[in-house]
Amino acid sequence: MSGPGFRVALWLPVCAMAFARPSWGQESGSARWRLTGAWLAVGPNAPFLTRLGTRHHDVYVLGLRAERALVQHGALQLYHTVDALPLAVSTAMPVRYDDGTCAGAAPQDQATCLQWVPHFGTVYGFGLAPVGLELRYAAHRRLRIVASAAVGALYFTQRIPDPMASRLNFSITGNVGVRIAPGSHRAIDVGYRFQHVSNGGLAFNPGMNTHMLQVGLGVR
Questions:
Q1: Banded pLDDT at 8 (limits 50, 70, 90)
Q2: How far, in Å, CA of 92 to CA of 4, rounded?
Q3: Is the pLDDT reported for residue 149 higher than 50?
Q4: pLDDT > 60? residue 40
Q5: What average pLDDT does range 80-100 have in this prediction?
Q6: How far apart are alpha carbons 220 and 191 in whole angstroms?
Q7: Sign of the C-alpha dihedral, residues 202, 203, 206, 212?
Q8: Is the pLDDT of residue 28 over 80?
Q9: Which of 157, 158, 155, 172 has the alpha carbon at shortest distance from 207?
Q10: pLDDT value at residue 207
C-alpha cells in the first residue's frame, strides 16, 4: 500500500472512535475496560510474493483481547478493542540472498552469469493493535454477527518480507464472523480475517496480504 493511502487507512478507526458518543442508551459503567478472551488466526499458503517470486507462506497470529463498550442501540453494539499480539509467525520467508552462479551456464560464462540464491526461514514477531472497532448485531440470544477493523504494529526478528525491508511493520485488519454463546458466560468466535502488513515506506516495501481463519474463546 502506498504511503499516503496507508496513513489514511490508519487514521480512519481513530476518527471513528473520536466521533463516537455513548448516546444510544449506553448504561453507566458499561464503558469500563475488560479482558474478554484470546484468539488464533491461521493463514495457510498466503499468496503474497517476495522479491524473487516465492510464495505459499503460512502465517499465524495469536491475540489477547480487551474491549470497552462505546455505543449501543437496540440489537447493535459498538466496541473499542485492543489486541495484544504476543506471537506472530510467518514461514518460508527469505532471510538473506547470496550470490550464486547461473545453473547450466557454460564454464566460461559462470564468472559473469550471477543470480541471487535465497535462504529461507521462519520469522517470529510480536505487536499491539490498540485501535480497533467491532460492531455486533444480536441476531439471536446466543448468536452475534460481528464485523471489525483494527490497526496496529508488529516487530519481527528478521526484516520481512524481504531482507531489504523492515523489522517494524504496521498492520491493518478486517474481520467478519459470528460469535456463538453455548452458555451464559462463554463465547466462541469464528470468522474470516484479512490482514495487510506494510512498513509504510520506512524501507523497501513489498507489503503482505493474508487471508486467514480466526477462532477465539471469550467471555460474554
A1: very low
A2: 30
A3: yes
A4: yes
A5: 90
A6: 17
A7: negative
A8: no
A9: 172
A10: 83
- Give the model's pLDDT for residue 9: 46
Express each pLDDT in 129-140 by its tens digit: 999 999 999 999
Query: Quick one: cell of 206?
Result: 513489498
Among 15, 20, 1, 41, which residue's Cα sits nearest to residue 174? 41
Whether the per-residue pLDDT at 161 is higher than 90: the answer is: no
Q: Copy the grid coordinates of residue 114.
A: 550471477
Q: What is the DSSP string of the chain?
A: --HHHHHHHHHHHHHHHHH--S-SSPPTTTT--EEEEEEEEEEEEE----TT----EEEEEEEEEEEEEEEEETTEEEEEEEEEEEEEEEEEEEEEEEEEEPTT--GGGTTT-EEEEEEEEEEEEEEEEEEEEEEEEEEETTEEEEEEEEEEEEEEEEEESSTTSEEEEEEEEEEEEEEE-SSSSEEEEEEEEEEEEE-TTSS----EEEEEEEEEEEE-
| CATH architecture for residues 3-20+35-100+111-219 | Beta Barrel (2.40)
Q: Please report the DSSP string for 84-100 in residue order.
A: EEEEEEEEEEEEEEEEE
Contacts made by residues 8-12, CB under 8 angstroms, sequence distance 24+: 9/151, 9/172, 10/131, 10/151, 10/170, 10/172, 12/149
Q: How far apart are CA 33 and CA 66, in angstroms?
A: 7
State which amino acid sits at residue 56: H
Residue with cell 499468496: 47
